[in-house]
Amino acid sequence: MKHNLLNWLVLALLFAAPISAQTYPDPDSPTVNDFAGLLSDAAEESLNSELETLRSETGVVMTVVTLSRKETFAPELNTEAFARGLFDQWKIGDAARKDGVLFLVLQGDREIRIQLGEAYGQDWQLATVLVLNRSVLPAFKDARFEDGIRAGVSDTISNVVKPYLAGTQAPKTEGTGSDSFTFSAPMDDNDQPKESGGGISGWWAALIFAPIALLIAWSKMKSKIAKCPQCGNRGLTVTNNRLQEPTETAPGRGESISECKKCGHRTVKTYPIAARGRGDDPEDTTPPDMGGGTSGKGGATGKW
Hints:
36% helix, globular
């Protein structure tokens, strides 16, 4: 009996292991990455200018990213975890200051996340909720994505980033409209869910939960097979190729090819590969000009 249960657990681990890997899109720009095509050329140019001015005047890197949905990249993650993973892979913000900001829109998932850098802590969490409620979600509910993004970016700069830099106390008392944002479960110091007391232990727990783990693992592995944005069938393959290797002084260039064998849909996007500093890892693909920042636990997720 114990031998069979151990086999179940080993199988569960084998199924679960591959799904833990996370793949995120490569950045086109440290300012605006409109992969979902929600912005007009004029709006993207305006946002680029606004965010470049923010960086030149304050040193803060704020990056806008729009995606169709997170299923293509990391379906097993909730929106906060996905945003933090993307933030950390792109290394948004200054490495020492850690005050970068990610403005992430998942159009197909109908979710928006403002993710703050580590330096903000959780003090400015309510401020990001207020930004979503007054500037972003009303426009998104009417499918005015461009308006919501532009207003949300300006509101975040004016009422989160600049007050934080000025040492202003973060808002703590205004209403939050809890129906339009979400918070994750409490986390411990290692970013793992805090454990609660009680529960089932021993072989009975293994007997009950091993089959459930297998089913969950299989479901996640199946969902990892991305859907084609054109025909909706699963089986979209993504291949990344290096077109030009980076040097110690110049960035390289790569391309990401998405192909669907069902309908023939094919997209090709190029992306930069960071220049290598002397002695750096040649496989390091940290995007140029992001700065090396890390995410924190501050921010808010909105749904419309």
